[in-house]
Write a structure and sequence with these properties.
The complex is a heterotrimer of chains A (252), B (275) and C (341). The relative contact order of chain A is 0.14. Helices cover 79% and strands 0% of the residues of chain A. Chain A has two domains: 40 residues, no CATH class; 202 residues, Orthogonal Bundle (MetI-like fold). The longest helix of chain A has 34 residues. The model of chain A has no long low-confidence stretch (mean pLDDT 90). With 275 residues, chain B is mostly helical. Chain B is 73% helix and 1% strand. In chain B, α3 packs across α10 and α8 packs antiparallel against α9. The longest helix of chain B is centred in the first third of the chain and has 33 residues. With 341 residues, chain C is an alpha/beta fold. Chain C is built from 14 helices and eleven strands. In chain C, strands 1, 2, 3, 4, 5, 6, 7, 8, 9, 10 and 11 form an eleven-stranded mixed β-sheet that branches. In chain C, α5 packs across α6 and α7 runs parallel beside α8. The chains are: A mainly alpha (252), B mainly alpha (275), C alpha/beta (341). At the A-C interface, α3 and α6 of A face α1, β2 and α7 of C.
Chain lengths: 252, 275, 341
């Protein structure tokens, strides 16, 4: 029985990882077609020539960095406050934001933004995308922080207070250092989620905010493209490393 | 303390209000309005969008979405359970094996779907390999159908099933299994009458975690289903973009939202702490 | 002012500052594969105007984005049937002919087009017809042939309600632009009947699949057809359906919301330059509305029967016409029903 399950597990892991490995393998194929014709970095070089790809990658990075910074900061504070005492509607809303299908989040944000723009002289753009990303990353950050806080001894903070620290000092000097790995892990998680988002971003993006997933999507719709294989491999490797690092940090 | 806490929660409240509460409220209002000449939203308040949703045509879409989500969940359960068992019984390497399951999930969802497009096309790797080996002569149509969508969903959400199952299996009291064996039950019987029922909470959690996102999926059916497999997510997206019928799209999203929330509520009440 | 607002403000400012430093000064939204590789860079070099160039796959996609009136795009390329509706919605800016010196280069047949006789709102760019691209060996010559069960799973139609409904209407013997609800409903049921034979609804995206051999027959625009045939000359061919077909013309137009009217005019004027237009037509295999440019084309392209069909063939075609608001609403609804079936 154990042998059987182990053999099965090999198959299951192959199923999970093979598609991406194959995708990566063919990104080094000299030919466009699914017949192997030789090893080459040609498609990776081609990536640097594609202006649209580079611009959308830059946009994605900017959006991810800004929204991650905001979401992590806000989420850490919120996680801490909720850990002390949970507030019904806020916890409920965070739960709801995790549970809401992406398409619903996307269209509702679009509707809300366009409705607001009747009264403000604004339009869809980087700022709407960043706000949307902060919105959906927040819950992920809070989950990670609260999980970490579950193993934190409140007595440590109380001791600090007894020794004359203010609440803020106690938080800043005692709790934050304890939370540091979790904060880093949460940040990486938020970054990953932001870089990869297609559905919500495509709905609320403006002229100046074409992101990498949007470019990938329109390329994917047109069929198979080795340049797409190349950019996919790069993204998968980068995000994979980030996730591994995040997991490591969460478990320290 | 209270002041510090309210300061800490203020930004979150504002963000939640702006990105969750207000948007959903607007969608709610729009669902009762009507479409303008070429698009846009216009005054006459009515229930027309909801009565239109009641049309069997759209009922079919909802039914198809449930069906596909249900099958994907079932397959995830069957495929995920042995994997969870393997990880739970692998001693020191647990973290490694667990990471190997989680890892693909956190790398780009879109790219993982594209990987399957690459594999399943008529001139993709699988067909080319099978033809080269002489197994088939004509390429198999593996893309642009319900099967491809289900495959994409299973591939995408399998980790969501494995994790809760693993969590429950890990906490399983091994002595109960031993007791069952001592009392003369064969391994098969032990599995179905002792192990499985004890894993019920994990199964429920995993099922919900796979079913709800599968129900509202958009990308998978869009890229793998080829604009023939229309699910609820595709309907909503279409109404808010090319079809330019926001009020109807709003009604459809609310319907989806209510169903998803109801399911999660039901799961929560049976004691699952998912957050 | 709380910390979050400040941070958002600061980051927005820095991002916009970074953008302005390099100065994107014209936003152009066009169909995919509709300019030659050097068209935009050459314009940027000549004028020093940085162009942000976005593409779309369907006119509905473009309309959905610009309908809000604050999309940020300056120049768009609607097809002729949408010029009037866009005017009615107040989306277009009137053109100033004094800034369009190259306007005379247009082919005489496009000097007074039915959808915009004085060219006040649009400038014809590229035109074509909708027909059937197929793998040689098959012989579809009518729309009816796309309902052939022998090709099941390898047929595609355009992801566009006007095109699909139009083809069905022609097949039933009605006008491409019919606004009669009974006729439209019959067309819709034909489309639904076809769905189980269809592989997918695809626009220009079908080109790669035609070339790769995944698709046997596709409803496609002449430009997609010409591009596909160029990639696979012996394996693909184009047919002008017997029952009749639709004609389209994509036009350059400036959005009323644009604050860069002068730069937009300069861009359109640049596109009207015969050498530029000829270069685009050659590189992208499109049929240009620019008469002077056509004269500059190599004979193989100038007389390409797919792009410039003979007059008696063209006579079977109908220009797509603007629909009334009521009719458009019905068509949109029927299309959702077709897609949902």
């Amino acid at each position: 029985m154990k042998r059987g399950i182990a053999a099965y597990a090999v198959g299951a892991y192959a199923f999970l990882h093979a598609p991406l490995l194959i995708l990566a393998a063919f990104s080094f194929n000299t030919s466009r077609f699914t017949v192997w014709q030789g090893f080459s970095f040609h498609w990776y070089a081609a990536l640097t020539q594609d202006r649209e790809l580079i611009e959308s990658a830059a946009n994605s990075l900017i959006i991810a960095i800004v929204s991650t910074a905001l979401a992590t900061a806000v989420g850490t504070l919120a996680g801490y406050a909720l850990w002390k005492r949970s507030i019904g509607w806020i916890s409920g809303s965070l739960y709801l934001s995790l549970a809401t299908p992406e398409i619903v989040t996307g269209v509702s944000l679009l509707a809300f933004f366009q409705w607001m723009f009747r009264y403000l002289n604004l339009r869809l753009g980087m700022h709407t995308v960043i706000l949307a990303h902060v919105g959906f990353s927040l819950a992920y950050v809070v989950v990670v922080i609260v999980a970490r806080l579950r193993s934190f001894d409140p007595a440590l903070e109380e001791a600090a207070l007894d020794l004359g620290a203010t609440e803020w000092e106690a938080f800043y000097r005692v709790t934050i250092p304890y939370l540091a790995p979790a904060i880093a892990a949460a940040a990486m998680l938020a970054f990953t989620v932001s870089i990869d988002d297609y559905v919500i971003t495509s709905l609320v993006a403006g002229v100046d905010s074409q992101t990498l997933p949007m470019t990938i999507y329109s390329l994917a719709r047109r069929g198979v493209n080795p340049m797409l294989n190349a950019v996919s491999t790069i993204i998968v490797v980068l995000l994979g490393l980030m996730v591994l690092l995040s997991e490591r940090l969460r478990r320290t | 303390m209270k002041r510090l806490r309210s300061v800490f929660l203020a930004p979150t409240s504002v963000i939640l209000a702006a990105t969750l509460v207000a948007p959903l409220a607007i969608v709610c209002v729009y669902s009762f309005l009507s479409r303008g000449a070429y698009g846009g939203v216009r005054e006459p308040l009515s229930l027309e969008n909801y009565t239109r949703l009641w049309d069997p045509l759209y009922g079919l879409i909802f039914w198809r979405s449930f069906w596909i989500a249900g099958i994907s969940t079932a397959i995830c359960l069957v495929l995920g359970f042995p994997l969870a068992m393997f990880i739970a019984s692998s001693g020191r390497r647990k973290t490694l094996y667990l990471s190997l399951v989680i890892l693909p999930f956190w790398t780009s969802f879109l790219i993982r779907i594209y990987a399957w497009m690459f594999l399943l096309r008529d001139t993709g790797l699988i067909n080319t390999a099978l033809q080269a080996m002489g197994v088939i002569r004509e390429p198999l149509p593996m893309l642009y159908n319900d099967g491809a969508v289900i495959l994409g969903l299973v591939y995408g959400f399998l980790p969501f099933m494995v994790l809760p199952l693993y969590a429950t299996l890990e906490r399983l009291d091994a002595s109960l299994i031993e007791a069952s064996a001592d009392l003369g039950a064969r391994p098969f019987e032990t599995f179905f009458r002792v192990t499985l029922p004890l894993c019920a909470p994990g199964i429920r959690a995993g099922a919900i975690l796979v079913f709800v996102p599968s129900l509202g999926t958009y990308l998978t059916s869009d890229l793998l289903g080829g604009s023939k497999t229309i699910l609820i997510g595709n309907l909503v997206q279409n109404q808010f973009t090319a079809a330019r019928d926001w009020p109807f799209g709003a009604a459809a999203s609310l319907a989806l939202m209510i169903i998803a929330t109801a399911l999660l509520f039901a799961a929560r009440r049976s004691g699952e702490e998912l957050l | 002012m709380n910390r979050r607002t400040f941070l958002i403000g600061a980051s927005s400012i820095s991002v916009s500052a970074a953008a302005c430093a390099r100065g994107p000064r014209l936003n152009v939204y066009n169909w995919s594969d509709y300019v030659a590789p050097e068209t935009i860079p050459q314009f940027e070099q000549e004028t020093g105007i940085y162009v942000r160039y976005g593409t779309y796959e369907s006119v509905q996609e473009m309309l959905a984005k610009v309908m809000s009136g604050n999309s940020g795009w300056d120049v768009v390329f609607p097809s002729n049937a949408f010029i009037q509706p866009m005017r009615e919605m107040g989306l277009l800016a009137p053109l100033r002919h004094e800034w369009l010196q190259n306007l005379d280069a247009l082919d005489p047949t496009f000097h007074r087009p039915p959808w915009d006789p004085e060219l006040r709102w649009s400038v014809p760019y590229m035109w074509g017809v909708t027909g059937i691209v197929y793998q040689t060996g098959l012989r579809p010559h009518a729309w009816r042939d796309l309902w052939d069960a022998r090709m099941a799973g390898r047929i595609t139609m355009l992801d566009d309600e006007e095109e699909v409904l139009g083809a069905c209407l022609k097949m039933l013997g009605y006008s491409w632009n019919s606004d009669d609800p009974t006729q439209l409903r019959k067309a819709q049921s034909e489309a639904v009947a076809q769905k189980r034979l269809l592989r997918a609804y695809l626009n220009a995206e079908v080109r790669d699949q035609l070339v790769a051999g995944d698709v046997a027959a596709a409803q496609a625009w002449a430009v997609t057809a010409a591009q596909a045939i160029q990639s696979a000359p012996n394996r693909l061919a184009f047919a002008f359906p017997q029952e009749g077909f639709g004609r389209y013309c994509d036009n350059a137009a400036i959005l009323r919301e644009s604050r860069r009217q002068e730069a937009a005019h300069r861009f359109i004027n640049y596109l009207l330059r015969p050498s530029v237009s000829a270069r685009i037509a050659t590189a992208m295999q499109t049929a240009t509305a620019n008469g002077a440019a056509r004269g500059l084309l190599p004979p193989s392209l100038r007389d390409n029967p797919v792009l410039y069909p003979a007059a008696e063939v063209l006579a079977r075609g109908e220009w797509g016409a603007a629909q009334t608001a009521e009719s458009q609403k019905l068509r949109d609804r029927l299309w959702t029903e077709i897609k949902s079936a």
